[in-house]
Design brief:
This protein is an alpha/beta fold and about 230 residues long. It contains 9 helices and 9 strands. The chain has helices at about 10-15, 20-25, 65-80, 95-105, 120-125, 145-155, 165-175, 200-220, 220-230; strands at about 1-5, 30-35, 50, 60, 85-95, 110-115, 130-135, 185-190, 190. The strands form 3 sheets. Strands 2-1-6-5-7 form a 5-stranded parallel β-sheet, with helices on both faces. Strands 3-4 form a two-stranded antiparallel sheet. It has a two-stranded antiparallel sheet with strand order 8-9. It binds adenine.
Length: about 230
Amino acid sequence: MRFHVLTLFPEMIDEAVTKSITGRAVTSGFIKVNTVNIRDHSACKHKKTDDYPYGGGAGMLMTAQPIYDAYMAIKEQIGTKKPRTIYLTPQGKLFDQKVATSLAAEDDLILLCGHYEGVDERVIEEITTDQISIGDYVLTGGELAALVVIDAVTRLLPGVLGNAESIEAESLSGFLLEQPQYTRPRSWQGKDVPEILLSGDHAKIIAWQKNEAIKRTKARRPDLYEKWKNLQ
Ligand code: ADE
């Protein structure tokens, strides 16, 4: 899968995706991350990418031209008529596992990162197919949000996680949060690992884990718990 990121700060993306599991996914060829510097596509001789908003108001807006030209260059390169193009914005649809799963089915994904006070509405209308928010808070730019999307989508791609079971288990439990987990040592700071996990009784362990996941979900995320209960 190929991610094409339109941004004024390509190094933010390049630096982060080469680490950890996304880094491994890049090296093994499961994903390609193509960062495109919007500034490089500015037609103005000072390579300007922003301007004052019509009607006044605080701050600057990203202008349509460099974004559109950067987008057209990618579109031409991938040869898709209307590639899935996502604008990262707090005004978008809230990103969740379901959205991540739908994006993981694409071959190419274009991610547009805004900056300053926003982006000229006309270019958003012209090029985007989706608008996504990663949560109800305002970031200084879309780069961190794009990285969240890249990370969540990449781990869903077949082969990326090595252990296919870890995705399987999640999708089976649907909306449940994970149960608490423990590793060595058996006793730490006077706290012992729950006895049942050392019992070797696989069926009992599975039942305990499920029950803990249900308890935790009910206490911490009653909204998810209700969704899960309705599926039972
Ligand atoms: N850009 C600024 N804030 C954002 C958010 N919460 N989600 C996605 N993109 C953003």
